[in-house]
Design brief:
Elements (H helix, E strand, L loop, with lengths): L4 E4 L7 E10 L2 E10 L5 E6 L11 H5 L6 E6 L18 H14 L5 E6 L2 H6 L9 E5 L5 H7 L4 H7 L7 H6 L13 E6 L7 H14 L3 E6 L8 H19 L3
């Protein structure tokens, strides 16, 4: 199992090679961004982008924030976006773009711990896949945890959700398929919740809703709720948060 092709990207880091990869999922060609260290790989971080199409697209600078000299980074574009074939279903068949990409990485780098980071819409992508791929941990950052809550809170997104998912009353089953929280239990991999308390795009209610379930199910988790921060944190707060994320990944790998 491997990528179909790799194309070098005009993004340069001393420690990593950057490539756009193409791989086959459900008979269609999906693309993603790959950063491979020149040294031995001892950690894999999979970044799940937010938005759809050109909104929230994968940015090398954002992915590079999570690199170390021995960390491989991968970010699927999702089908229907940035040259990928198919149609984005917002937590539907596009979830396979995540799982198949990770299966390829697990084949290429067996026994290497994998951490998933879901930002914004990437939150639901990760919650619906991180157990299937047996991730070491999942970090949800300003992430969506409930599609029905998203429909209720984001009035301006309702037409998009009706188009991509359906109406929550008429196509209730489609929203139930995207309900990841119900399948998280005490034996699920640990979750780190990061959220700005002033987030206007993804309400803090999403984080509190997820935390309540994790607490009830006795899942290992931690939270970082930032006063005065919105959907995107200010630079210094972001740096502090990234530092904590690295410590979190170390702890999870050491079963602490």
């Amino acid at each position: 199992m491997d990528f179909l092709s790799k194309k070098k990207m005009p993004v340069f880091f001393q420690s990593h090679e950057t490539e756009e990869v193409t791989y086959l999922v459900d008979g269609i060609k999906v693309r993603g961004f790959l950063m491979t260290p020149y040294s031995e790989v001892n950690r894999i971080v999979v970044y799940l982008r937010g938005g759809k199409g050109q909104v929230g697209k994968v940015r090398p600078g954002r992915i590079a924030q999570f690199k170390t000299d021995h960390t491989l980074l991968f970010a699927p574009y999702y089908r229907g976006s940035n040259g990928s074939e198919g149609r984005d279903e917002f937590g539907g068949k596009d979830l396979e773009d995540v799982t198949v990409g990770i299966q390829i990485l697990k084949t290429l780098y067996p026994n290497v711990p994998i951490h998933m980071i879901g930002f914004s819409r990437g939150g639901i992508q990760g919650l619906l896949t991180y157990q299937k791929v047996n991730a070491t941990s999942f970090i949800i950052w300003g992430g969506v945890s409930d599609m029905l809550m998203m429909y209720d809170e984001r009035i301006e997104l309702r037409s998009m959700l009706r188009r991509m998912v359906g109406h929550p009353k008429k196509q209730r089953s489609e929203y139930e398929l995207r309900n990841a929280i119900k399948d998280i239990h005490k034996d699920s991999p640990p979750i780190l919740i990061i959220h700005g308390k002033e987030d206007k795009q993804v309400s803090i209610n999403m984080a509190l809703h997820l935390e309540s379930h994790l607490k009830e199910e006795h899942v290992k988790y931690e939270t970082i709720y930032k006063e005065g921060e919105g959907h995107v944190f200010r630079p210094q707060v972001e740096r502090d948060t990234l530092e904590y994320i690295f410590k979190w990944m170390d702890k999870c790998e050491n079963n602490e």
